[in-house]
Every structure is written in structure tokens, then in C-alpha cells.
Amino acid sequence: MSNDQQIIDSNINKEYEYGFVTDIESETIPPGLNEEVIRLISHKKEEPEWLLEWRLKAYRHWKKMKTPNWAKINYPDIDYQSISYYSAPKKKELSSLDEVDPQLLETYNKLGIPLEEQKMLSGVAVDAVFDSVSIATTFKDELKKAGVIFCSFSEAVKDHPDLVQKYLGTVVPYTDNYFATLNSAVFTDGSFVYIPKGVKCPMELSTYFRINEANTGQFERTLIIADEGSHVSYLEGCTAPMRDENQLHAAVVELVAHKDSTIKYSTVQNWYPGHPDTGEGGIYNFVTKRGTCLEDNARISWTQVETGSAVTWKYPSCILKGDNSVGEFYSVAVTNHHQQADTGTKMIHLGKNTKSTIISKGISAGKGQQTYRGEVKIMKGAEQARNFSQCDSILIGDSCGAHTFPYIDVRNPTAQMEHEATTSNIGEDQLFYCNQRGISSDDAVSMIVNGFCKEVFNELPMEFAIEATKLMEVTLEGSVG
Amino acid sequence: MLDIQDLHAGVDNKEILKGLSLNIKPGEMHAVMGRNGSGKSTLSNVITGREGYYISKGDVRYKNESIIEWPPEQRALAGLFMSFQYPVVMPGVNNTYFLKSALNAKRKHNGEKELDAAGFLKLIKEKLTELDMDTSYLQRAVNDGFSGGEKKRNEVLQMLTLEPELSILDETDSGLDIDALKIIADGVNKYRSPERSFLVITHYQRLLKYIEPDVVHVLIDGKIVRSGGKELAIELEEKGYGWLES
């Protein structure tokens, strides 16, 4: 129909609703990257010598590396010397929420995640990372009773140096890839979780990240260790203020699952996607997330809802080393306007009877470009390994794109592989059908998209599922008549 | 209820309706019969406001208001319903959720309280029984994997639930076996009332055996060439359309 394009064009103008900047005084290192800067970061954080050495090794390695260019994304070259690598709000080391800057609490309120209320109502412990330094940590005592360690990465370096030293870089080594290596050199903070033997973490652990300081790259580092027979569910959610300059984000997340343990890691990501008409100013999100099922019967599950960022480069992966271990990847990614996403997963089967499941749902609207890139590798010793992959794409309008690159590498003949892929679009007929029943086009799109994403949303914890549904609505509102 | 005056309309610069007039009063059931290509689908699409159709002349009035500038959802909320010739599949969208959203959109529009899940379930279960449909329907996605008969039944179920004042039944008999046809006709007949009007668009006279129209119109080349009582339908069945062509 001739009007389709017109409808789509006229409606791809949904502004980013969560854009605002909180005015809190920060202590910021001037832009630039060299060994001095790294020493300064390490010094400011009062780190032990071994960690500084590790950072420097990473930096020296990074200098020899080249930016990867195999992903289906376009963005201007990043000037790493123009980025400031450390920014910390001046007020810190607070013992209770009362001491938190009221303006910050207001920021959370704007995001609809009032900490106070969340503490009381949802039983979610929140380790709020604001720019680079953790400001508020709640429910610590309750977690302590269970023996769970949940703190900022810097605290962990101070209080649990043995654990950090034992596990840091064991899943994502400092030589891993360009962005992970950069992170290893300059990371400022993040979260640390340790669940001791046999403990089922009594609550969902949740961290809200925000990028707030202008011109500050955000280099978070998260390390989660589930000891034998333990169980943890971790939630990561983020929104960011609107701004003009591009912001680089290169986080690293490492998960270690010991024998009979389970780690469930859920993400809702809604960073500023850039100007709707030009794509300018959005976040560049280059993230390395990987988990190892180190021993038998371990399970790692990634669930992600990616609605934000101008550029997303992200492949949460599982190394299934232990026999009977399980890896899961559930993903919904939305690209609207000028957003680009190259995302997927890797499942590396090493142990016997290892099992992996991949469910990927991609939604493209506007001029959005999206790529699913997944690799399933069955190594020689992985007897009876099984994988099921399903990659579905939905297109809204005719100026967007969806691409699927599944790589399969099987080196053991007993493996069972299944792969399904579909591409569909939200048709004029579906919209008219809904309209004729009195349902508006926006409601129709959100209905169809939510139906499409149901399998993934079902994997999210309740509150997150609601937030994800809301985010989808905001992101796609007005993408059709 | 519905008053169409000298309607000239088409799609992609091709005029399909060439001066069609039609007047349906409250409580009346009209049938428009015609061959493929005579303009039947265009008529239903123009009345319901589908994108892509243009109107070059004439007017469509519903309850004494011109609706040709209204978007389709506004027409629907005002009480205009169409049972689709080809009901659309919506994978992943649950029937219950879909129909409840539609009903609540309408209730909200009418200033009525929206139904909660329990209230809706009670209502929908009654309607399902009326149409001899299984409750497993509620868990299925809209028209996904439905047989032709199931799809048409679903359309009539939606009509009974949304309680429109003017219902367009677009080729509702196609793809139905005789048992399904009777059940659907029963549902429609029970739904008839002095306030509700119907426009039945059909190729064959089959459905009209079970739901008796007050007026039958013959559509040829975008114009109504003859109108009469229900006996006109029988005459058409015997003689075909040829004798009416000029």
C-alpha cells in the first residue's frame, strides 16, 4: 500500500523518554590514556600491586591490538585519547541511603526505580553504580547472614583480594579481545558476587548502572562466582541521560559456575540510542560477557533485553566444561531509528552431555540494522552434546534490516543440533485487523511484538518482565500509524 | 444506520466503485451479491476505512455522520464491525488477550468500566458455548493454525463479544462446511435485533438460506444494478449474473 511508508516515516520519531542529566559534582581525571593514567586509577582505588601489574599488562597488550571490524556495524573511529577514564562522585562511603545525594535518589525516581520503595517492596538488594563508584548498597546484612558477598568491585578488591585474584580474568583473559583488554586496563568499578557452597541466594541481586558524567567512558567489571551447589539470580538494568557526545561503554562480565550451581544473569539495557533523525550521540556498547560451567551439572543462563544504544556489540557466551552442564541464551534486541546491533552468543561444548539453548528475537524498525551472530561449537570430547537454536526476526517498515549468521562447528559425531530461523514483518493487514477491532496501531504493535518476545520475557524475573514490556512500548511507540 | 450515496472509490488510481448507493436502516439485513471483481471487497474496505483506498466522489454516512475521514479504529469504536474474508494470523498474540483488549478499548470509549480478567472470562465462555467452540481456543494465538472454519467462527465470536451495531459479513460462508455454516448462521440470527444491522457480502446464495436478508442487491462493475427481496438471491443462483449485465 502506498501509504505504508508514509505512516512509518511519520511515526518514527519517538524521543528518548529517559534523557536527563543529574548535576552532581564529580572528580574527573582529564582525558587521555597512558600508563600514568592507569597508575593513577589504581592509586586512587588503593589497589594492590598485582592488580596494577595486571592492568599494565593488559594496556601494553591493547596497544598492539587493532579494532575488530568483522561485525556488521558502522561508527566513526573512537579517539581513545579524548576519553576521561575516571570519574567519581565526590561524596562516597555512605553507610545508609539517607546519606545518598537527594538528587541521585530523584534520578532513580525519574527512572521509576525508587530505591527506598524497592528495598521494602520487592526484596531486591540494589548495588547502585553511579558512574564509576558504588554509592549505595542495600540488604548487605541479610546477604551476609547467608554468607553471600555482594559488593562493588573495588570493595571486593579490598575485602576479598584472594577471591578476586583467584578468579579475575579466568573466563575473559586480559588478552581476550580489543574491548575486553581495554576494560582490563582501565576498569573503574562494577559488581562482585560470591555465593558460598550450598547457598541459594535469598534474593534477586540487582544493579542499576547509569552513565552520567559527560565524556566519561564507562568500563565496568563484574565478577560472579557460584560455588558448589549454590544458586543466584542477578539482574542488571540501565538507562542513561541524553547527551550529544558519543559515549563508549566497554564492560566485561565474568561468571564462574562450580559443580551443581546455577547462575541466572538478566539484563535490560536502554541506553541513549542517539538522535532519532541522525543517530548522533548514542552510546557505543561493546560488551564482553562470558560464563564458564567449570564443573559437572553447572548451569548458566543469560537473558537480555536490548532496546538502547546506538551501536551494540555483545555476545554473552557459555563455556560448557563440566559434564551435563547447561548453557542458555534468551535475547530480545530492538533496533529503531538509526540503531545498529550485532549481537548473539557462543556456546562452547567441552563436557559430555552438555546442553545449550539459544532463543533470539530481533525486532527492527525505522532504519535500524540488526545482526544475529551465533556460534555453537561441539568439541571432540563433548559426547552426546545437544543444541537447540531459534532465531526469529520481525521487521517493521521497509527501511530496516535483519541479518542472521549462525556458525556451527561440530567435531563429535554424537552431537544433536537443531536450528530454526524465521523472518516476518508486522503487516498492514495485521494492523488493519487490530484497528478494525478498535485497537490503536501503537497498541497493536506492542501486542504483536510482545507476543513475538514472549518466550524470552517468560525467562525474566517478574518486575523485570514488566519493565521490559514497558521499554518495548516506549522504544517502538509510533513506529507505525 | 448506513447510508452510501453515489460512491466512487478505488485503489491505485483505478476506479472500482462507480456510483454505488446503499441505505441500510436499523434492524435490516442487506445482502450484496456479485462476482469476483465486481467491487465487493472494495466496498467493505472503504466502509471500514482500510488504508490505500481513495474516494473520489460521494459519501459514506454512519448514524448520520460522514465517516470517510475517520481512521478505522474510530469507526470500529463507533460500532462498525467486519467479519474478515481472510482473518489475519497474529503469532504469539493470545486470543483472550486480543479480544479482551478490543472489548476494553470499546468499553473505555463508551465510558464503561473495563472488564477484568475474571469478568472477561465469564463473558467469553458464554459466547464460546453459543458457537460450540472449545475453551482451548482461549490459549491459542489469534487465528494461528486455525482451520478455515475455525477462523470464520472466531470472526463471529468476536462480533458476538464486541456487540457492534453494524456488522459486515464479508464472504463469511466461504470455507465452511454445512455444520459450521449452520452454527454461524444460528449465532448471527440470535444476534439480530431491531437496533442491529447487517451487510452480508457474498458470492453465493448458500449463506442466505440460513440468514434471511431483507434486501438483496446485485453488484456488477461497481454499481448496484438491481435490488429486490430474498427471492432475487434464488433467481441469481438459478440464472447466474449474465442476464443482469447490460
What secondary-structure arrangement, pairings included, does this model have?
The complex is a heterodimer of chains A (481) and B (246).
Chain A (H helix, E strand, L loop, with lengths): L2 H9 L14 E3 L6 H10 L4 H15 L23 E3 L12 H9 L4 H8 L2 E6 L2 E5 L2 H7 L2 E4 H7 L1 H7 L10 H9 L4 E5 L9 E6 L10 E6 L4 E9 L7 E3 L2 E6 L4 E9 L12 E11 L5 E8 L4 E4 L2 E4 L5 E10 L4 E10 L5 E11 L3 E10 L7 E11 L4 E10 L5 E10 L2 H9 L4 H17 L4 H15 L5
Parallel strand pairs in A: 3-7, 6-8, 7-9, 8-11, 9-12, 10-13, 11-13, 12-14, 13-15, 13-16, 14-17, 15-18, 16-18, 17-19, 18-20, 19-21, 20-22, 21-23
Antiparallel strand pairs in A: 1-2, 3-4, 5-6
Helix pairs in contact in A: 2-3, 3-9, 7-8, 11-12
Chain B lengths: L1 E10 L2 E11 L4 E6 L5 H9 L4 E10 L2 E2 L5 H6 L2 E4 L6 E5 H15 L7 H14 L10 E2 L5 H15 L3 E5 L7 H14 L5 E6 L12 E6 L2 E6 L2 H9 L7
Parallel strand pairs in B: 3-10, 3-11, 6-9, 9-10
Antiparallel strand pairs in B: 1-2, 1-4, 4-5, 7-8, 11-12
Helix pairs in contact in B: 5-6
Largest sheet of chain B: 6 strands, mixed
Low-confidence stretches of chain B: none
Question: Biggest interface, which chains?
Answer: A-B, 29 and 32 residues
Total of DSSP H or I helical runs spanning 4+ residues of chain A: 12
The side-by-side strand order for the widest beta sheet of chain B comes to: 6-9-10-3-11-12
Q: What's the CATH H-level superfamily name of chain B?
A: P-loop containing nucleotide triphosphate hydrolases
Q: What is the beta-strand fraction of chain A?
A: 25-35%
Number of domains of chain B: 1
Poorly predicted runs of chain A: 1-14, 90-94, 116-126, 128-137, 208-216, 240-244
Q: What share of residues of chain A is helical?
A: 25-40%
**CATH topology tier name of chain B:** Rossmann fold
Rg calc of chain B: 18 Å
Characterize the quaternary organization of these chains. Answer: heterodimer
The major pleated sheet of chain A works out as:
11 strands, mixed
**Helical run tally of chain B:** 7
Rough outline of chain B: globular
Mean pLDDT of chain B equals 91
